[in-house]
Design brief:
By secondary structure, the protein is mainly alpha-helical. 67% of the residues lie in helices and 0% in strands. The radius of gyration is 13 Å and the shape is elongated.
Amino acid sequence: MCRDSGFPLRSANLPRRQRAVVVLRHYEDLTEKAVAAILGCSVGTVRSQHFRAMARLRAALRENQEAAR
């Protein structure tokens, strides 16, 4: 999500680790390897947490758009 989309990241109610992965990958523009090093986990964990977080964000965004109609 971009900062000016009008959709706050916290409103998706992501678990801490998923939120951290999204912030580090998209806001800080870090590589998966760098995020893994910062969070103390494997690159595979970063990938799976990112996948799950993006799915939750898409669902929350859809709900937000439907509620606005």
